[in-house]
Amino acid sequence: MLLALSGLSGDLFVPYPPEPEIATTFKIPPDFPFLHEAEKSSLERLSALGFYYRKIANFLDKQRGRNENNNNSESIEAQKGSNNTLRGSFLHALCNAINEVLADFHKSIIESEIRILSKEDNMGGVVPISQLVSAFNEYYIILPHLNQLINDIEQNSVKYFGCRIINLVIDKCNTGVPELREIMLKLLHACHEVMYKHIASWLVYGQLVDPFGEFFIKDKTLKLNPIQIQEQFSRSKWHRRFILDESFIPNHIPNDVAKSILFVGKAIATVRNSAKPYDKHSKFPDQIASLHLQYLLELSSRPVFNQIELENIVNIIRDNVAQWLWQVVLTGDKVVECLETFKNYFLLGQGDFTTSLVEQFEKLPTSRLSSTRAPLIKEQEMNSLLVRASVGTLAEKDLAFEKFRFKISEKATSMFDDILVGVPLRFEYDIGWPLDLFVTSEDLSKYGDIFSFLISLRRTHYKLQKVWTHLATNVKMERNYKFSKGGNNIMLMPWNVRASMMFFVDCLWAHVQMDIIESNFQNLVRRITVSSAHHQKQRPSSTTEPSSPISPTRPKSMNPKKDTHSNESERLRDFEDIRLGHTSYLDELLRGCLLESRVCTETIRMALKIIDKFCVLLERWDGQRDFMERLEQIAKHNTEFREQVMFLFRTLSGVNKTGGDFGGPPRHLDQLLLRLDYSKWFSVWSS
């Protein structure tokens, strides 16, 4: 019986069912004499514990490499990819915890043997079976559940790999049996210790030591060499290197906490691996790092996982790291300065430069602009044009302007990229560290889309102004205008068409610049200013040691009094919040410029094309030659323009009621529709 409990079969206790079927327990042969059915049932129940013990022990030996191929050394990649042998630090820790349970079981077998040999349980020369049943009573529940646990792991090796194995153990903890729950909590604690080691390495040092890919934070450059990894940072792609794999996040850890963990480690890793550190404080203070490590070690030593405590500690660490980043790497002034630069040039907030740039484009030979052959337009020429446009403007002495450049791309990413020169022309900015912490390449692409739209709109506005000058200064056109006052309204057609087109462009330009760009820009700057003021208050006094640039936040100060001088709802905690706020700001600009609606974008592009044809027609007409033919062409352009504008007006009116492509009724459309139809002119026109 004792040998069977140790997992060794024999003549009395044999595997059942017999081969070739897979055995699931030990049983006494049916032809074995001298046993009562009750005795046989009790002995088989005890022997089943030995079968579970052997199966679990074999599983543990398999994980430790104590199988037939235990002399072979395999690489980590081969171990991870093997279908027969599971690998990983989480599984290794779980096996160690299970082994402790088996050690206690084996100890109970030895103690029973000692009592039998010492005749402590001897009753008249007979050892009652009830004594053995009582000695192993708790294992009737524990070992079958451990056996089911390893079966689940083996049958679903992908589902329960790495951090995912914690979800399985948590499910096993949900039981009303105290003995079983105690064992499962020990297994869960072992898995949590591994998880805390990953979290501590990531949060404190910004290092991802995860050779098996078990943690919920992944390094996409794991297979690259150090030189290629360095290039990832120099190309402003730090935010793409480390990602959050939500499928590995344990169920009891909220996604917000996981995202905070990702942010903190990514921030420290980014600064550490940056090719050009900002200053001597670019290394996170050792004093604060030691304090963070102490917090996490205290959590990992707790026998029971506490979600609230983990959230609190992660928030404290995030606040400390955010404060350090804000003060020594990316201050609010740098962010606001960068945003103002983008507003001046990407969003055409610099009026004199915008006008000069449009004039330079208009000076290009028409034959070259109308050509579809890209080689006629060179990037070098476009960048020279950009420099000439800055002469005599505020951009000439702006150092940030030197980082802007034009680039001719093979394929247009926006519908307005090819309006200026006939080929896709993109306006780009060379972002550097540490500003690339909050400005991503996707953000710069969005800025380029908005610039293409705005410069096309401003160019159309400029051409309509030139048309007015041409009409007013041309003697014959002026004579036609005076003649039309006598009742011949046909002479007024060029003036009327030009006025309606100018009204549309003026409304659209004013809406974009005043209602959309300026209001959203001021809102974002205000939030950053509030955040900067908050972090300024957190700066240490002059008596603080220079080696500790920030005062660490401790758990006892987790519920600080609210700052009565600032709106907490507007404050951005760190550059990750700034990045998200900046991304939201760009999305608002795209929606406000109607660039997220393909229907609206195509309609505006078509309207601008029609206006361009109208302007070219009038600029080449002296007001007398081919008079009626030119008026017919003007009337045709006017009809096409009205169709496009009225279609846009009806579309916007419908979107304002239903939401359309915008995901809900946008408020900014109220302002645009009010500008267009303040006198009900469009409403009457459409009817």
From TrEMBL:
Domain Gamma tubulin complex component C-terminal: 339-682
Biological process terms in GO annotation: cytoplasmic microtubule organization; meiotic cell cycle; microtubule nucleation; mitotic cell cycle; spindle assembly
Stretches the record annotates as Disordered: 532-570
Gene3D superfamilies registered for this protein in UniProt: Gamma-tubulin complex, C-terminal domain
Annotated organism of origin: Rhizophagus irregularis (strain DAOM 181602 / DAOM 197198 / MUCL 43194) (Arbuscular mycorrhizal fungus)
UniProt name for this protein: Spindle pole body component
InterPro entries: GCP, GCP_C, GCP_C_sf, GCP_N
Keyword Cytoplasm: yes
UniProt keyword annotations, A-Z: Cytoplasm, Cytoskeleton, Microtubule
Compartments, record wording: Cytoplasm, Cytoskeleton, Microtubule organizing center
